[in-house]
TrEMBL record:
Encoding gene per record: aroB
Alphabetized GO MF terms: 3-dehydroquinate synthase activity; metal ion binding; nucleotide binding
Catalytic activity reported: 7-phospho-2-dehydro-3-deoxy-D-arabino-heptonate = 3-dehydroquinate + phosphate
Domain 3-dehydroquinate synthase N-terminal: 77-189
EC number(s) per entry: 4.2.3.4
Binding annotation for Zn(2+): 194, 256, 274
Organism annotation: Bradyrhizobium icense
Family stated for the protein in its record: Belongs to the sugar phosphate cyclases superfamily. Dehydroquinate synthase family.
Name of protein: 3-dehydroquinate synthase
Pathway entry: Metabolic intermediate biosynthesis; chorismate biosynthesis; chorismate from D-erythrose 4-phosphate and phosphoenolpyruvate: step 2/7
Assigned GO CC terms: cytoplasm
Keyword Aminoacyl-tRNA synthetase: no
NCBIfam families (UniProt xref): aroB
Function: Catalyzes the conversion of 3-deoxy-D-arabino-heptulosonate 7-phosphate (DAHP) to dehydroquinate (DHQ).
Length: 380
């Protein structure tokens, strides 16, 4: 589909999980409907909004107003922005604040923010009084298409990213696409890597559509809602078939085995945002697939070209500070990958491509081959 799209009414995507099914509501201005939706879903509930300082500046008042207009009591918990909050200390702060706000079993926690806030607030909700329901109000593109959907919640350990957590599905996701207008171009691009991921892993037609329509997604045209809805539908379908990642859900980790190692090698700092790590990681996965003879070099180049065309980093050398500080050697990157959750009995799992739009889980890739491949990539 390449014809320009028109802005449409809100789009609702259903995450079909039986009695834990929930809606993802996508559209410009849907944040104003939060109060009425929460009132219908959980009459009489109190709510606590967990957010960070930057998001609070832009969106907290509007969120509180929507809830107040529907007669819903709210309290607020504001954390520091960034991974510094996805820690034991951040979890303690949020948990104690929720207890102090008297959030009980039938009440709701509302996660207003990007991936960090969603993961942290979701995990705090999962363990508070052995489980309180929560609503995701994702305010970054990455959170709207990935982290707010599917119920993965958690915090980091000093020993690795997302090593502590729980599957805890939200009861509602409100993805207001107009809130993305305040994101920096770099943050928006980082989220776009996860949008492109859905095309690369399972939907060649969507990837082709993205190649033709990405400018409209970035400028806030109707293609934005279409891209977010298509991404959420793809994720919802996979999550409803494999909620606990016993199989197919692992495909959503395309680009993440390499990406997480690169994030760790750059100290989880501003040198590399998560989505940027996924972009470089996805290109490495495509190139490794080509090296193994699974796809053609032309397909790997096509993935690289599209991500580069929107300004995403696609090579190790594109990572900020590579020329000055370097990155890590191939052995260190291998060790970092071995620390990832995707390790099973010491074996690394990679998501590889058999075609654009057809990803597979590979548990049997020879570590020495991956090490040599990384060595070669590091030397450009
Ligand atoms: N972000 C990968 C997943 O939710 O499974």
């Amino acid at each position: 589909m390449t014809a320009p799209l028109k802005h449409s009414a809100d789009i609702t995507v259903d995450v079909a999980l039986g009695d834990r099914a929930y809606d993802i509501v996508i559209g410009r201005g849907v944040l104003d409907t939060l109060g009425t939706r929460v009132a219908a879903l959980r009459p009489g509930a109190r709510t606590a909004i967990v957010t960070d300082r930057t998001v609070a500046k832009h969106w907290l008042e509007q969120t509180e107003r929507s809830l107040a207009e529907a007669g819903i009591p709210t309290s607020r918990v504001i954390v520091e922005e960034g991974e510094v909050s996805k820690t034991y200390a951040g979890l303690e702060k949020v948990s104690e604040a929720l207890i102090a706000a008297k959030i009980e079993r039938n009440d709701l926690v509302i996660a207003l923010g990007g991936g960090v806030v969603g993961d942290l607030a979701g995990f705090a909700a999962a363990i508070l009084r052995r489980g309180v329901d929560f609503v995701q109000v994702p305010t970054s593109l990455l959170a709207q298409v990935d982290s707010s959907v599917g119920g993965k919640t958690g915090i980091n350990s000093p020993q690795g990213k997302n090593l502590l957590g729980a599957f805890h599905q939200p009861v509602l996701v409100i993805a207001d696409t107009s809130v993305l207008d305040t994101l920096s171009p770099r943050q928006f691009r980082a989220g776009y890597a996860e949008v492109a991921k859905y095309g690369v892993l399972g939907d060649e037609a969507f990837f082709t559509w993205l190649e033709a329509n990405h400018a409209d997604i970035f400028s806030g045209g109707a293609a934005r809602e279409h891209a977010i809805a298509t991404s959420c539908r793809a994720k919802a379908a996979i999550v409803s078939r494999d909620e606990r990642e016993n199989g197919e859900r692992a495909l959503l980790n395309l680009g993440h085995t390499f990406g997480h190692a690169l994030e760790a090698a750059t100290g989880f700092s501003d040198r590399l945002f998560h989505g940027e790590g996924v972009s470089v990681g996805m290109v490495l996965a495509a190139e490794l697939s080509a090296k193994l003879g699974l796809i053609s070099e032309a397909d790997a180049t096509r993935v690289e070209r599209h991500l580069a065309s929107v300004g995403l980093p696609t090579h190790l050398q594109d990572i900020a500070g590579f020329a000055q500080e370097g990155l890590a050697d191939a052995d260190t990157l291998m060790a970092l990958m071995a620390q990832d959750k995707k390790v099973k009995r010491g074996k690394l799992t990679f998501i590889l491509l058999q075609a654009i739009g057809r990803a597979v889980v590979a548990n049997d890739v020879e570590p020495a081959l991956v090490r040599d491949f990384l060595q070669q990539k590091l030397s450009g």
